TrEMBL record:
Family according to the record: Belongs to the bacterial solute-binding protein 8 family.
Upper taxonomic lineage: Bacteria, Bacillati, Actinomycetota, Actinomycetes, Kitasatosporales
Keywords: Signal, Transport
Protein name: Iron complex transport system substrate-binding protein
Gene Ontology CC entries for this record: outer membrane-bounded periplasmic space
Organism: Streptomyces caelestis
Amino acid sequence: MSVRTAYGAVEVPAAPRRVVALGDTALDSTLALGVEPVGTLSSRGGNAVSPYLAEKVPGIALVGTVAETNLEAVAAARPELILAASGTPREQYDALKAIAPTVVPEPARFGDWESETRTVAAALGKEAAAERLLTGIEQRAEDIAGGRSADGTGTAVVVRWMATGPVILSSALMPSRLLKLTGDRISPAAAFTGKPHTDPLSLENLGEIDADRIYLTTLNADGEKALAAAKAQPAFARLRAVRTGDVDVVDGDVWSSAAGPLAAAEVLDDIERLRSAA
């Protein structure tokens, strides 16, 4: 079976049983399609699999981090197929394909996680299942939007709080795209500028994150400490969303790092739950 990839057509085995998925989107998509990989990378900013996926792969081998793949660990997992992340450089691809057939998704529009999911599906021979998943996500988002009253919409922004301050996540990323599908208007401050997020903002410029609703994330303890300190500042209390009680703390892995069908379902779960509680 041949699959189109960033490095040309690659012959992959039919129904591979030992798959290594390098990255959250590859792991998320593989699991969503009913295949349990034998190896993966630790999550961004962490030393384990993203918590929202961990219970689905309790015994999976970690073969590196987002920053560095351990080739010896990949080989030790004895993969029949390696699903690499979009943007994997040629040198690393060559090293991986020496271990097993390796699929690197073709370049796609920034934030287009669906394209990577479709490539994973093609490599696993599960294209039809992937289309059903993606159609279901879009339909559910539209159903949520249809259940909202006209006065229930407003501006929204997704913010990750880091040790150096808050960054506004791009409107091109999965959470903001889903928020838009469910009826929100994404804050102009999140407009796509070619980067996944803004530079960290100082407390003096904290007003830039303001919106009718703020979805707030952290990825590690340093970010949590910085957020706790910021909450004590008058500039934080002046935010419109803070004054109206419309700041929602959400899972940092799901909302600011991951992408894939399972992450999309988690984001929609959060949107539905938080709006019903409002």
